[in-house]
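batch_manifest entry 22 of 60
target: Pentapeptide repeat
source organism: Crocosphaera watsonii WH 0402
requested by: lab member K.T.
priority: normal
notes from requester: please return tokens only, no post-processing; we will run our own comparison against the previous entry in this batch. if the run fails, retry once and flag.
--- input ---
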Amino acid sequence: MTTNNFHRREKELLATIIFSQRNLWNQWRRDNSEVPLSLEGINFQDCDLTGANLENIDLTNANLKDTNLKSANLKDTFIECADNLQGVKLDDNTQIDETSRLVWDVINNPQSERNLSNLDLRGVNLKWADLTNANLSGADLNDANLAYANLSGANLSGTDLTDAYLWGINLANVRLDKNTKIDEQSKLIWEIVNHPKQERDLSKMSLEEVNLRGADLRNADLTDTHLTNGSLKNADLRGANLTNAHLNNVNLIGVKLDENTIIDEKWKFVWEIVNHPQSQRDLKKTDLSYANLAGVDLRNANLRETDLSYANFGRSRFKRGRFEGC
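--- output ---
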């Protein structure tokens, strides 16, 4: 048995004891709260941990989605670094530090124009958070997870984003200044989204998991550019050169192309499917591997012997579609 597996089993056993022997566990924890323990990475989704004493237990990267933590003791648990706090239930009796409760509130009670200026938010998990028009000026977000967060209109003047996870974030109308600490790639995305310029040379760049929603990329050189898992939704690609561009799982909804856009036939066809839906479309023997077809109406489509490996079908509809040999 490897050390990692052993630690994993220890954590799972500890979680089982907390679930099944709540009163006994709480008494033991009260008497031994100084002993650091870890439930890092454990999946607690939909669990009832009402009144559980989790003091000084590391919950970093734990999945707490829809978990009931009313009246729980969450002192020193690093819950603000948990993998998922969506739907977590807290109450006035939940013992939790101010920063952790704030992170929970940001995730579960979205509101525009939050004032988070000058706060110490190092290492917190704000993945998918709605931070529209938020004031984050002077905040310390070093090593924070902001992946796929909506920061549109936010004030990041003097914000420290050193080593922060910024995949897929929306940087439209975001305010930066000379004191903002942000990685070069994210600074480039911010520049593209907020300062339109034609004929940009982005060839051979690694721009995976970036959000270029609505970007003006007219006549841009995107030859051999890696855009995998990103979003080009509503981007203007008229006249752009996308020869050999990597468009695996890229959102192409609303993208503008014209007769001067150079794009590989496969991705031109995916763009066509996404933006010009047809009833009973014949996709027999078509290569749709890695295509982002989320939300596409494929009812009655002929998908016989179609390569759908690793395609994204989130919210797509398939009623009466024919799949033989896919």
